[in-house]
Every structure is written in C-alpha cells, then in structure tokens.
Amino acid sequence: MNPLDLTTTLNRAGMGPGHEAAVAPAADPVFVAKATKAAIEFESFFIGNMLQQMRNGTRAMAEDDSVFKDPVNRDMQDMADNLMAGQMAHQRAFGVADAILRQLLPAAAAPAAAAGPLPMPLQTSRQKI
Fold it and tell me: Hey, which of 3, 46, 47, 109 would disulfide with 85, CB 3.0 to 4.6 Å?
C-alpha cells in the first residue's frame, strides 16, 4: 500500500464515497434556527462593513463644506447604513448567508434553496424600531 494513497486512507476511516451523510449534522430545528440567525447576522455585518468603507471613501473625497463631512450628520448616516445592512441581510440580497448555510446544512440546504428566501417586510416610519 502506498502511504500517500488518500483514497485508501479515507475509505479505511469511513470517509469514502457517500461519507457526506455520516458527517452532515442532523436536521435539528434548533440547530437550523441558530445557524440561520448566525448566517444572517454575519451577512448583515459584511454588508454594514462594506457600506461603512464606502461611506468613509465618500467622506474622504467630499469637499470641506459638504454634507458628507459634517460631523452632525455622521451618526445618523452610520445608523441608516446599519439599518440598511440589516434589511438587506434579512432579504439575503448578497447571498452570503445562503452560502454559509449551504456549508453548515448541506442536507437541509437543497429544499431551502428550492423554496428561496422568505421575504421580510420593510419597516415603515410608523412602526417602532
């Protein structure tokens, strides 16, 4: 036997063809809910960080008397960016959460991907935040 033969080593370890079923976690509803929440929160963080970098670039290029350089507006713009990131993540606009869930839940991802993401209603000014 060749010690570098990976196929033989994997077969002996029980990880030959079809090992995905043995390695994949069971479709536990609690695990699926926690994984989905974490994936959406990570996508929100990712989008928020991207919007923050874009906003910083806009501030760096803005004129001295521009609205974008005014420190009074900075907090409100940052808060609006974070709310926008959260809404976009719940709509799974970038697909980051879906990619994470495909890796964490390979067996449960096929039916969920076929159904598509659930729409989340946008908050209006009359709703409490």
Answer: 47
Q: Which amino acid is at 87?
A: Q
Among 84, 31, 92, 14, smallest CA distance to 54 is for 84
How many whole angstroms separate alpha carbon 118 and alpha carbon 26? 22
Alpha carbons 129 and 124: distance in angstroms, whole number: 9
Residues 6+ apart with CB under 8 A from 88: 43, 44, 47, 94
pTM (two decimals): 0.60
| First-to-final CA distance of the chain | 65
What does the pLDDT look like over 76-100, one tens digit per residue?
A: 888 999 999 999 999 998 999 999 9
